[in-house]
Structure formats: structure tokens, C-alpha cells
Amino acid sequence: MTFLIKKELIFLDDELTSRDEIVRKMSENVRKLGMITDVNAYMEAVLKREEKIPTTVGLNVSIPHGKSEAVQHPFVTFMRTKNPIVWDERSDEKVKLIFMIGVPIEQKDKLHIKILAQISKNLIDETFRNRLLEASSTEEVYRLLKQIEDHIYAEGKENGE
Amino acid sequence: MKIVGVTACTTGVAHTYMAQEALEKECRKRGHEIKIETQGGMGIENELTEEEIAEADAVILAVAIGIEGDERFDEKRDQGKVLTFDPSVVIKNVSEVVDQLEKL
């Protein structure tokens, strides 16, 4: 069983202030970790979606995502920026919490998708967002996200998935 | 009120489920009955029945892509009971979106 939530995928209080730089930094990291094969191909998918309509959702959150052949394993990587940044110049909406998601063209692992879905649902909850905004360490963020993953796996086991 | 809807986005892992959560939360807070079908990475879940669609006072389609079974809503469309938005717009402005549904 491969776990989705990893400490190496969490960036806290990063000083980058531009969307493209942030997407690049996190993409290069997931390439190093072996989740994607090609930074540019993945980034193209992500930025194409952003151009169509920004993935900000209010709530200080954006969820850039790409479905691409470059993605080998589904992943979610998280960054909290040091200061609120303007995500897309077409609006003045600011974000501090960035969840970047990658999924392969062929989605085989339903549990992984379920974890990504559950994290997304939790983001609607203000208490959960505040915990992410106030967490004082990578470890703390890791535990918050890991809880969600553990819960889904436990449920999956019960249902014999 | 009875509200039904569908949420769907391109990758089907984030906005689909966030929009579902936001709509369910806001509608329940206001005492509406709500059922949201998701068409995402886990396939079609919480599928709406013909009866549920027929009985609905308003339909919300929070979709960024073409959806399965769009024609199920044709009759409601003819009655002016269907609103369509991008899922991120729904998440961002869920209170205004439900205001609009209430006025249909």
C-alpha cells in the first residue's frame, strides 16, 4: 500500500509570491519524488486549467490540478505561503493555502481519489482551514492530513476495498 | 425547498467534492432538502433518480465539463428551474448561489 500524504510534500511559509513559480517549485519536487516524469508536461496541464478559470475557491485556498500522462502516481502537495499572495492577476483574490493535485489519465486507485476528495471537502470547514493556517510545524500539517488518509483506509478495509 | 444538482470538474478529485460539500452545508443550514450527484474520479455517486429530479423545485449544475445524463434536466430547463455555474464559482459564492436557487 502506498501512502499519499508525505512530509516531503509539505511546504510551510514559503516566500514565493507568483503562481507559476509556486507550481514549478512543487512540480520539481514531485518529479524528484517520482510521482511525475516530466515537469513541463505536468505544468502545462495545470496552467491550462488555470487559464480557463482560476482554481481559487475563496477561503484563502487554491487547488491547482492537472490530469496528465506525465503523472505516474496520484499526489497532493501542500504549500502555505508566508504572506497572502494574488493567485491570478485577473482578480485580486489572495491565497495562502495551496493544494496542488496530480492524477494519472487512468485512475486505478479509488482510495487515493477518495482521500483527495475528502481533503477537498474538509477545506470547506473553517476550523480545518484555521488549523492549517495556524499549524506551527510541517509535522502538525502532516498529522492533520494523515488523519484523513488513515480514516479513508480504515473505511476501505471495512468495506473490503 | 427541494434542491437537486450535479457537480463535476475536469480532474474530478477536488472541486467536484468541494462544491458538493459547500452546497449541502449551505442548503441544510437553510432547511432545504438537498441531494447532489457527483460525477468525479470515483464515477457517478449519489445518483439522482427520475423521481427526485421531477420533484425538485430547483436544480443546480456546478459543472466544468459535459456531464452524463444532462438530458435528464431538459424539462426543468424548460421551466427555468436550472442554474449552471462553474464549480469554483459555486464554492466561492455558495450563499449567493442558493439565494438565486430560492428565487427560481
UniProtKB/TrEMBL annotation, chain B:
- Name of a matching Pfam family: PTS_IIB
Domain of life where this protein originates: Bacteria
Stretches assigned to the PTS EIIB type-2 domain: 1-104
Query: Which Gene3D superfamilies does the record cross-reference, listed alphabetically?
Result: 3.40.50.2300
Residue ranges of the TM segments: none
User: What organism does the UniProt record list as the source?
Assistant: Caldibacillus debilis
Q: Name one GO cellular component term.
A: plasma membrane
Q: Which UniProt keywords apply?
A: Kinase, Phosphoprotein, Phosphotransferase system, Sugar transport, Transferase, Transport
What name does UniProt use for this protein? PTS fructose transporter subunit IIBC
Q: Which GO terms describe its molecular function?
A: kinase activity; protein-N(PI)-phosphohistidine-fructose phosphotransferase system transporter activity; protein-phosphocysteine-sugar phosphotransferase activity
Q: What GO biological process terms does the UniProt entry carry, in alphabetical order?
A: phosphoenolpyruvate-dependent sugar phosphotransferase system
